[in-house]
Amino acid sequence: MMKIKHLLLTAILICISCTDKKETVQKDVVPHDNETTIKTAKKLPENLERWLKFYKAENPDFSADSFTLLDSADLKYSPSAVKANFEEDFNPIYEPFLVYSPDKSKYIDFDSYHWFTDENGNPGFEADQQVSLVHLPSKTVRQLSYFGPSFTIEDAYWEGDSAAVLLGNTYEKVPFYIRYNFNRNMTYTYRSADTLKVTRSYTEERLKKKGIGRK
167-173 — which CB contacts under 8 Å span 24+ positions? Predict the structure, then answer.
């Protein structure tokens, strides 16, 4: 049964690295020689360091070394239902959670489709999650990925102005990350070999730090 679950998880993760859910482009699972991974980064970005530290608290052996490349695929954009911060209908409660590129020309939004607040300021979560890329100079909003309830994007960061990384976890508590190279129009999906022990929600802790949810 565990082997079946492992194979199923592998198949699903391959699919989510493509934004077109009807077609997955298979390639040799080998990144370009100069592609950065979280194992080869000279300095860990703040969001990545915080994410790894959160899970290491209950899983001391968890590290960047546990991730291996699962799939590479062409990057396919889709239309996005997410409102950008230059639109009137954008809810400013999400502004602190937008992840901007270093030059501030682009940002990743993985929050505004995924959660909302109730009358007490506590978050409620949608079953699905859309991740969008917003290009401010051209005012374009495109969907990078769409995830069902078995997967959650928990954080993100940029590597320069042309690559971004989504950090996620699965219902089975198997961490993964997806690296988007916008210059090459490629995605690289990495999965951890570890199944983690988790008693807290990274997402809820992240929201609390910016005033969303019970302290």
Answer: 167/47, 167/48, 167/51, 169/196, 169/198, 169/202, 170/9, 172/5, 172/9, 173/197, 173/198
Number of neighbours of residue 192 by Cβ within 10 angstroms: 22
10 close to 70: Cβ distance less than 8 angstroms: yes
- In tens, the pLDDT along 82-121 reads 999 999 999 999 999 999 999 999 999 999 999 999 988 8
Where do the domains of the chain lie? 2-208
pLDDT of residue 37: 72
Q: How many CB atoms lie within 10 A of CB 98?
A: 17
